[in-house]
Amino acid sequence: MKTIFASCTPREEVQSGELREDLFAARLHDVMEGSADPIYQDPKRFFANTYPTSGLERLLREALGRLTGAEPSNAPIIRLETSFGGGKTHNLIALYHLAASGAALGKAVEHIVAPHFLPGQPVEAIAGVVGTDLDVANGINHGAITTYTPWGEIAYQLKGNAGYSLLEESDQTRVAPGTQVWERMLGEEPALIMLDELARYLRTARGFEDETRVGETSLAQQTVAFLMSLMEFAASRSNVVLVYTLTEASDAFGEETETINRELEEARSASARQEQGIIPAKDTEIASIVTHRLFHTTDRDAAEEVASQYVDCYRQIADAGLPVKATRAEYGEEIQRSYPFHPELLTTLTRKTATIPNFQRTRGALRLLASAVRKLWQEQPEETYLIHPHHMDLRVERIAHDLTSRLERPRYRAVIEADIYNASEASRAHAAEIDEAFTSSGRPPYATRVATTIFLNSLTHEIASGIEEDALRLSVVQPGDDPALIKRAIDELENVGWFLEYDGRRYRFKTEPALNKIIEDEVMSLGRVRAKKLLNDVIEEIWPSGILQVVHFPQEAAEVPDDSSRPHLAVIHYDATAISADAEGPPEVVRRIFNHAGAAGSFRRFKNHLLFLVADKDRRERMVDLAQKYLAIQIIKEDRDRMGELAEEQQDRLQTMYEQSGLNMRVAITKCYRFLYYPDAGAPEGYDNLKRETLPGQEQGEVVDDQCQVVLAILKRLSKVLDSEEDPLNAQFVRAKAWPQNRGSLSTEDLRKAFAQKEGLQIILDINQLKATIANGIQTGTWVYYDEDKELAYDAESPSSPPPVKFSATTVLYTPEEAENQDLPLEREEAEAVEQCLDCGRPLEECICGVGEGEDSTYDSPPVPTPGWEPLEAEGVPNQAFQAIVDLCHDQGIEQLTKLSIAVEGGSGDAVEDTRKLGLVIPQLDPDRVSIEQEMVAEFEGDETLEVSFRGSWNRYQRLKQLTDAFGREASDVNVQMVLTLSYPDGLGVGGDAFRTVRETMTDMELGAIQVEAVRMEDEADA
Questions:
Q1: Can you list the positions of beta strands (E) in 339-489?
Q2: Strand, coil or helix: what is 901?
Q3: What number of other Cβ atoms are within 10 A of residue 138's Cβ?
Q4: Which end of the chain is more exposed for a tag (fewer CB within 10 A), N or C?
């Protein structure tokens, strides 16, 4: 498919930029005086540039047939009717040239008129009077003679001084002459009389009624009487032709046109056969006129191919929302007729823009299109197959001027500069800003295309402005375009445009500010301080503490704890530091916090438990801008007076914008905070063992409420964290990486801390994983586990290996060699002769937990249950409460449980903290087994109250947890109760690993007093 640059050649004057006003504004008077531009003055050049419309051909046949006698029965009176710029003057000039030159033009006009219609000798009696040339007050000076009326000017043009003398008194007294004066003046001589834009003269005459009164009548009335008399004279002669023009009643001089029509109505009815009405150019011919005038050649084969390709494209994307006509073969034919212009461009100019009186239809379209063609041929953009509405390039000053000031719509200049094109780099238009994303990825500037098309369709007079969305797509799309991207451009432009309005049916630009402009004004008034405070609050909300202890906006190292309890995520304030994607190494504030701890600047010990989030400086401003917009809309929404000034539709739109802007702000935050720094022994030299990972961008609908989960997911992908879903670490690996060199022993607590210290190790999220690794090391002989409290060591051969693992300074791991050197008391089979308590591991007579009392107390031989069951309920710190449950089960011979319930309650900050910790336990257990109940009543200053009641699963509760944790901390008074219920339909062994895991997990969280209830298997069966 050829581009227009390969298939069309513009005329030289179009490409050279000779776009003077007189190139398009032909003047009959200048042509008759011999002073017109050669384009109009030279008959051969004039007709070479003239497209033979059916109206022109008919006019020439009618007028010349009567003048020459070739068709004496033709109408003596011809009325040309159309709007300004509709081709009337051009047709009168054509008629003048043929009458004045006759057969001398020969072949130059054979494409327009048959030779036998051409006068053998030039017609000498020709008059052409234009209403705008007449001067009611001062007249037209011809040296010794000054004419004041249309009849005086016609007489002078027909026969000079001699002709004027015949009706001088009528001209001086402004009294219309009768038919006899014309008979005396012309005799039997052929004559052509042309009256153009008489309605304009009529308006001027009305303005001088007091000065030009003629008895009981006015000059305007005398002018109408003259016209009727002239028509009567022309009808009485076989070789006289009168051609006059009238504009449409809707045009600038519509009232005067109606007056003439009304006055002539009677005369027309009496001589209906003597007057012929002709339209110089039909709407269907405007494309051909414009193309012929602007282009020297056009390839019609290319036109056919382009039309076929466009219609095929429209049929393929019809589901994207196009008018039905676009897929029909008839539309392809319309594209061929309009080629190289898109039909929608010409339709817009001739049916919408042309309704503005100053536009002047064909003339105005020619002027605009010539500027557009010149710009296109200068730049020759790729894949340009038709000239679309958006090729009315508003960057071209002539085009922008013609569509604003020239049409007496100067306020639309502000629309262009705000929403479509602005030459100032410091204040770019909204469409240009949107197009950055398109053009940077090799796409066309869809937003500017859409905006320009809407703008062109917004310029109307007394008809509905704007364009429907399906018609907008049809105007913009071309083969190879993605309709989804065009839709995206429309939506984004609607979201940011200051003057763009969508009423549910049409898009249009208005000169009154739209909601976006009102919001922008509010943004400018509120400043950035309040917006940043809101931004800070939202950042704290979307990165809450949980598995990670989040420290928001630390500035000094002392603000970030240096401990091994939980990993810390430091979210660095975007104003404190922000980096670009190509930054080398971590920023200074990150290095300082990572390397130091405490006010005194001591070195940080637990570096492997410290992560950082840093903002992207290239996305920081957008994040702040969107926060400003969100806050601005919120302020407007909360102002009742301002909301009352808005229409209901605008209020609904504002609510939608409010919700959308909130989501946009959150998306922008996640896209800005995209640089994660984490400890890694393999980080580049000089980066302080910190490696950077870029977090993935999140779009609307993908934003996770808890952004810490995104961080954890990335760390998991990088194998930097170890949670319950991973396999435990190999003991040999841990000994090689975490064990101090040349050390024979290490406490389990120090081993746990080593994972928080060494950058080359994973971050332990589930402490049970490390317990499993320790147990594996005992069984594989990697180390020996020694419990100082029990004074007993366990190795692979110990009967109860592995023992329950705990983290403390008194449980120590020894290398096998060091254990042998220390002669540690290892648990062996022979020790079984001494019965031991299964819980505390001591001989029964030394039992300190109470379970082993009595000679026959073991789990292998449970006591015979006594009638009646004692409830399995206990209270105390976790280890104490669970031990009490173990004791109750032992005493009653209970080996299997089906449920465990753990509850915390209270009305203090400690209860709130225990509730928070209890929520953190859930991911370390099996969340699918857990059901949660929570009741919370929080009171705040100012008589504000929050009541929460929840019963459900972890999936839903984890979203609620952020809310209750935050409000619990803020409340002045709070009462909270939380119950976790773990279900084991297949049974939970009281002495098994699963029970031990629950117990140890609860103990490790260092909760305060809890209540524990258990349900034995038998109770569940009975129920």
A1: 467-468
A2: strand
A3: 8
A4: C
